[in-house]
Amino acid sequence: MFDSGFGGLTVARAVIDLLPHEDLVYLGDTARYPYGSRPLPEVLDFSLEIGRMLVDRFAVKLLVVACNTATAAALDSLRSELPIPVVGVIEPGVTAVISASRTGNFGVIATVGTVESKAYPHAVAAIDPGRSIVSCACPGLVEFVERGVISGSEVELLARRLLAPIVESGVDALLLGCTHYPYLARVIADTVGRHVVLVSSADETAFALADLLTDLELHHPDLGRSGRHRFLSSGDVRAFTRLGSRLLGPELVDAELWAPGRA
Ligand code: DGL
């Protein structure tokens, strides 16, 4: 599983809870975050590099792209380049927000890269061509999470400014289309109003992963112990361990350095 940084830990949490016997290797590409403001071809290159490394070095049986921006930029290429199944976060999230909305007026907030890719409108149209989704880019929110700031007046102010179009649109369900955003759920809920249902793709992605493991008969057998969890970071590993364990929980005890550009 990989993300630009700490956001994918929301997906890791859901996967560890749902599939406690599976081994997990998580890579946070903190040296190159944020992905959301980079050109998509660059995010595609990073994603392919990471996917190949996880296959070659760890012989992973399946890859979860725990990042919306990387899913938008690279899911198709990862699926055709890698010899293993690849799961993204966009389709599970879209399915969940469609069923959460009672009025049919629903939205997504995401990085600039994800919104510009139009991956969400395309995914909605693929499921139901008659429906549309209100999309809103939120540049700057990821940086707060990466600094460990998930509350306070600074982030509240930014959220109020960025989410104004969502408030005006009157959506009744809002998909957190960036895996960092569930850490800001309280600020987001206070801003858009408690009547708006917030949908995180983390749980839905874990369910999609569980279904795929069952279909492909790839489940790790229950050997009476929990799976092994390994964490890699391309940036400062001590900082990654400190904030990562606060965000994920006790499974993140230490992290190893992975240097991009080398296999
Ligand atoms: N967490 C990522 C996502 O879901 C990317 C955030 C970023 O690096 O900009 O889009």
Please give a structural write-up:
The chain is of the alpha/beta class and 263 residues long. The protein folds into two domains: 142 residues, Rossmann fold (3-Layer(aba) Sandwich), CATH 3.40.50; 112 residues, Rossmann fold, CATH 3.40.50. Helix content is 48%, strand content 13%. The strands form three sheets. It has a four-stranded parallel sheet with strand order 1-2-9-10. It has a four-stranded parallel sheet with strand order 6-5-7-8. The protein has a two-stranded parallel sheet with strand order 3-4. α4 packs across α11. The radius of gyration is 17 Å and the shape is globular. The mean pLDDT is 96. It binds D-glutamic acid (DGL). D-glutamic acid (DGL) binds next to α3.
Secondary structure layout plus pairing:
Elements: E1 2-3, H1 9-18, E2 24-28, H2 40-58, E3 63-64, H3 68-81, E4 86-87, H4 90-100, E5 106-110, H5 112-117, H6 119-127, E6 134-137, H7 141-146, H8 153-162, H9 164-169, E7 173-176, H10 185-192, E8 197-200, H11 201-215, E9 229-233, H12 237-248, E10 256-257
Parallel strand pairs: 1-2, 2-9, 3-4, 5-6, 5-7, 7-8, 9-10
Residues 3-4, 7, 33-36, 67-69, 111, 114, 142, 178-180 line the site of D-glutamic acid.
Please summarize what this structure is:
The chain is α/β, with parallel strands linked by helices.
